[in-house]
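QA checklist item 7 of 12: single-chain prediction sanity check.
[x] sequence parsed
[x] length recorded as 429
[x] structure emitted
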Amino acid sequence: MRKKLRAITLGCSKNTVDTEHLLGILADAYEIVPDGKADILLINTCGFIGDAKEESVNAILEAVQAKAQGDFGKVLVFGCLSQRYERELRQEIPEVDGWFGARDFTPLLEALEVRERKADRYFTAPGRPYAFLKISEGCDRRCSYCAIPFIRGAHRSVPIEDLVAEAGNLASRGIRELEIIAQDSTFYGLDLYRRRALAELLDALSAIEGIEWIRIHYSYPADFPQDVIDRMASNPKICAYMDIPLQHISDNVLARMHRGVTGEWTRNLIAQMRARVPGVVLRTTMIVGFPGETEEDFAQLLDFVREARFERLGAFTYSEEEGTYGAEHFPDDIPEEEKQRRLDTLMQLQSEISLEHNRSRVGSTVKVLADYWADGILVCRSQGESPDVDPEILVKCNEEDNPASLVGKFFDVKITGADIYDLTAVRIP
């Protein structure tokens, strides 16, 4: 009998893709189990910011305790946390049977006595009609707060033909929506083709039969490729949705962050997107409490958020990351209580904007994709909602309507209600 293997993935969607590729390679040699006891437990860790590192460490400690109780035969850890802190972790948690990095699966596969091979991804959430497609690895940016470049290494694009092949396989297995992800998706192609090739990739992916929606995540504002905006405006398969982490608007803070843009550049880019793609939904993230952020800088940020009216916005307090330029050159001089006050103020403002946006949609008819059916509710999304991070459109159905058969299908609904987080709707026959 094959040994049982279980995987736990922490962190972002990019880690989810890594785990699914790895499990695809392992699926012939091991019985993959979603939960419970196993001969081997794999933990894919995150090492990006303080809270994520703490979550990963706690998961490892819980795993070795469960191992001691007989739930697991071996515990193997890989990913960003162990890439960054392997030496320290080996000393602090010797009960772990193996530590592996984030850049190369080969040592981990050798430890599992499996040869590297091409294999279909193993779906960790079977039945979902969307999949994340990681188009590149690593990052050449040098934002002063970010540890990703020395965790994941330099930017490396996946060739277009390989991504088309993977997406075609995903479509053949029922995937209808692709979530484009990377450390920096708009940098795609520069290493392989000596040009930004995201628009070319979008063209190739949209030609795949069965793929109906393509959504772009993790775009970078500096030198944003204008042909990507053109594709979003003209190609109905490219969702009128852009995830573009901006981090701040103050020239003072942007310069200290090494973002490579100014506040004026940022405002102009957002205005272009709004003008050229009517109805575009913009998601962004902001960092508050960065070293040297003054009250005036923060006031500028609030004014910008009021002006831009982002449909989706997340925010974080600054977390000093050892080894980064910011940690070495900028004292973390803003008290944690003040950082939290600024975060609360910003998110209260965004809650009002989000509620206003959601309420403006009541009475409208939208095309949705049904993600899953549970507890009498068909959980759906339109082009304006990304899975896991955005509001959901909840459609109440009766069992006699056979709602489970609608999962993975597109249909029209009428929005009937809205709050800050989710919307309710009825299906239009």
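[x] summary fact logged: The chain has a mean pLDDT of 95.
[ ] second reviewer sign-off
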